[in-house]
Design goal:
With 294 residues, the chain is an all-alpha fold. Among the domains are: 2-67, no CATH class; 205-255, no CATH class; 258-294, no CATH class. Helices cover 20% and strands 0% of the residues. It is built from nine helices and no strands. It has helices at 2-28, 55-58, 71-75, 120-123, 143-146, 166-169, 189-192, 258-261, 281-284. It is rod-shaped and about 120 Å long. It binds heme C (11 copies).
């Protein structure tokens, strides 16, 4: 017990002495000489603009020990020491000033988004800090649905967990919709599109029982183009849903003479070394194969 008292008294004495010396320093030295005091020795570095502040501004009433070392201890709202406080219109943030500020200046704050509490748009409204520019995609979504805090670009939208129909967002107002040249269709976007990208557009034919022509009329979906082989046959006789090419021709269903198609343009024609003949092809050929001849 005795030794503890002795220790305490000893420490108090030391502090008292140190304080006394310092006060003497304060009294004796001119303002210029304040810089002479090596504050680093106290274990608290006076960096930035702090090195130019008069001792008593921080050490009110000549009290040195126990002076707050935390920024917010002096610059927080309601403290007695520092003049500059966190302004009331300050961006919503935690009290850890040094997450974003240094002692050099309050301006040009380094933005540590971990210390923020507000939603992105409370700051990123184009006034308090960077907001959406006028060309920004139309969207009512929250910024952080598409942006991370590290950088604005690249932006991404995470569709996982989205259960709403595509068109509830992709209507050209909230986000990208069909452009003017889009093939005319009243089908659901999800029938043809996946979220990974608009192109390629695919169409899931599974479960489709209606005739191809119901959709493949060149309007609702791709139809026969102008150079298509002459046929009034139904599409399904020659095409499968996996791709238009290769087409397998069912000759039982085609219309027109053999040569109307087999002219070397629409379909294979006579080769250069073909036996000279003016007869119709089917005089010598069947529709199953060219060789051997009938
Ligand atoms: C920006 C504020 C600030 C200014 C200006 C400042 N100090 Fe300090 N000082 C501190 C802080 C903070 C401590 C650490 C207090 C602690 O550790 O308990 C400290 C510690 C000290 C201590 C040691 C206290 C102890 O017993 O551990 C002394 C002595 C001291 N300062 C003297 C000075 C003198 C002399 C000046 C002017 C030349 C000065 N200080 C200017 C903030 C300041
Ligand atoms: C012991 C009290 C104290 C502590 C702790 C303290 N400051 Fe200061 N600081 C002051 C005083 C006093 C001033 C000068 C008066 C003023 O500008 O408020 C000042 C000034 C400043 C200035 C200069 C403002 C200007 O425009 O010149 C900045 C920047 C600053 N402090 C940032 C910080 C940061 C960041 C921290 C934490 C790392 C911090 N301060 C910790 C007391 C303190
Ligand atoms: C999450 C980051 C962050 C935190 C934490 C933070 N600030 Fe700020 N502070 C800013 C930003 C950003 C600005 C605006 C800087 C600019 O305009 O260059 C600012 C501006 C200021 C300004 C006004 C500068 C001026 O003259 O307009 C003061 C004063 C200030 N902060 C003090 C504080 C204090 C005190 C604390 C701690 C209690 C604190 N800040 C905590 C980010 C932060
Ligand atoms: C408390 C205010 C505040 C909030 C809330 C906030 N930010 Fe920031 N953010 C800033 C400030 C200040 C800057 C730096 C100045 C600027 O770029 O406007 C910044 C910078 C950025 C930058 C640019 C980074 C760089 O280095 O280019 C991005 C990206 C960003 N914020 C995204 C976000 C996102 C996403 C959210 C929501 C999760 C968000 N911010 C929330 C204040 C905030
Ligand atoms: C639906 C997704 C989405 C939402 C929500 C969104 N953005 Fe964006 N943002 C984008 C896309 C996409 C870009 C363009 C990125 C590119 O050019 O690679 C972009 C670009 C930006 C840029 C421009 C970057 C540059 O330097 O050109 C800023 C700034 C920006 N957004 C801010 C915001 C803010 C602030 C919010 C919230 C108020 C927000 N965004 C909400 C998708 C979104
Ligand atoms: C909650 C709103 C929402 C819903 C629902 C939604 N999206 Fe999106 N989607 C977005 C936003 C926002 C973007 C990013 C901005 C933009 O490209 O319009 C986006 C982007 C896309 C992109 C572009 C991706 C890229 O990297 O280029 C595709 C493709 C897409 N969505 C398809 C779909 C499909 C398909 C569905 C339905 C299964 C769907 N989305 C449902 C909001 C939504
Ligand atoms: C019947 C199938 C079908 C439906 C339904 C459909 N699309 Fe498409 N979409 C396509 C095809 C095919 C393309 C062209 C793809 C290509 O060029 O390879 C396309 C292209 C697009 C593109 C343009 C991609 C680009 O950059 O050129 C967008 C955007 C788009 N569709 C959005 C939508 C939206 C939004 C919906 C729902 C409201 C929708 N589509 C419904 C088939 C469809
Ligand atoms: C309910 C409407 C519908 C019906 C019925 C339908 N399709 Fe499609 N099909 C589409 C749409 C939409 C696309 C994608 C847009 C486009 O290519 O025009 C498509 C695409 C295709 C493609 C292109 C696939 C690709 O990956 O390039 C082929 C081939 C196809 N259909 C064949 C058929 C055949 C054969 C039938 C009949 C057995 C058929 N479709 C029935 C709507 C339909
Ligand atoms: C008698 C057989 C036959 C019938 C019936 C038929 N097609 Fe074709 N189609 C073909 C052949 C052969 C090609 C050319 C394939 C090639 O170039 O290898 C073709 C090509 C196409 C192509 C072009 C593929 C491309 O990218 O060049 C489309 C689209 C197409 N057909 C759609 C249809 C549609 C829609 C129907 C029904 C309305 C239909 N076809 C009926 C045989 C047929
Ligand atoms: C409506 C157009 C059309 C008509 C009419 C037509 N064909 Fe074809 N035929 C094709 C197409 C398309 C193919 C397959 C693509 C090709 O070989 O260029 C084909 C393929 C063939 C083949 C090759 C079969 C194989 O599997 O190798 C023979 C042989 C053939 N036709 C004979 C005939 C004969 C004989 C006639 C007249 C009785 C005839 N075709 C009428 C379009 C037609
Ligand atoms: C007088 C009989 C005759 C007539 C008419 C005829 N061909 Fe041939 N064609 C032949 C003979 C013979 C061969 C050679 C068979 C062999 O090599 O076994 C042949 C071979 C072919 C071959 C195969 C060539 C090759 O090198 O593989 C094609 C394709 C062909 N004929 C198309 C036609 C078309 C198209 C017509 C009608 C415009 C036609 N032929 C009319 C007798 C005829």
């Amino acid at each position: 017990m005795g030794s503890l008292i002795a220790k305490t008294t000893n420490r108090q004495n030391k502090t008292f002495l140190f304080s006394l010396i310092t006060i003497c320093l304060l009294l004796l030295f001119t303002e210029d000489s304040f810089a002479e005091f090596d504050h680093d020795q106290t274990g608290y570095l006076l960096s930035g603009n702090h090195s130019r502040i008069r001792c008593e501004t921080c050490h009110r009433h000549g009290i040195f020990k126990g002076t707050s070392k935390k920024c917010e201890g002096c610059h927080g709202q309601g403290t007695l020491i520092a003049i500059t406080k966190k302004p009331v219109n300050h961006i919503e943030s935690s009290e850890q000033c040094d997450d974003c500020h240094t002692e050099v200046s309050w301006l040009g704050a380094r933005m540590d988004h971990l210390s923020i509490t507000g939603s992105c748009v409370t700051c990123h409204d184009g006034i308090r800090s960077t907001g959406k520019n006028p060309n920004h995609i139309q969207s009512h979504n929250r910024c952080d649905e598409c942006h991370r805090t590290i950088a604005w670009i690249p932006a991404r939208f995470d569709h996982s967990g989205i259960t709403a129909s595509c068109v509830s967002c992709h209507n050209g107002t909230i986000s990208t919709g069909k452009n003017a040249n889009h093939l005319p269709t009243s089908d659901l976007c999800e029938d043809c599109h996946r979220t990974s990208g608009w192109i390629p557009a695919g169409f899931d034919h599974t479960g489709i029982t209606s005739a191809c022509i119901n959709c493949h009329d060149g309007s609702r979906a791709a139809g026969k183009n102008a150079g298509h082989i002459q046929t009034s046959n139904i599409c399904e006789n020659c095409h499968r849903t996996s791709g238009w090419i290769p087409a397998s021709v069912d000759h039982g269903e085609v219309i027109g003479t053999c040569v109307s198609c087999h002219n070397g343009t629409i379909a294979v024609g006579k080769g250069q070394n073909h036996v000279p003949s003016a007869d119709t092809c089917d005089d010598c050929h069947s529709t199953t194969r060219w060789t051997p001849v009938l």
